[in-house]
Sequence to fold (80 residues):
Amino acid sequence: MTEPSDTDKKTRRGGRAPLDASSPTVIVSVRMSEKQRTKLDKLGGGPWVRERIDRARLPDEETAKPRGGSSGAKGGASRW
Fold:
């Protein structure tokens, strides 16, 4: 077996390609049940989560008027 030449070494990159070359990524670990993990996989996994985060509005961006939703929260309790 021969070693790669210097030019081959320069063009090779290890690891997963970045999602967006202009923005570094971080790894986030989340605990969930097996049933939730199965559902997450069916919804689209990591790409689905990233899209939802990008589309979500932060609390200070929301209007004061409740929009109604399916969060299941009752009353004025905090989301977190």
User: Anything to note?
Assistant: The chain has a mean pLDDT of 78. Residues 31-55 form one domain. DSSP finds three helices and no strands in the chain. Residues 33 and 70 are 20 Å apart (CA to CA).
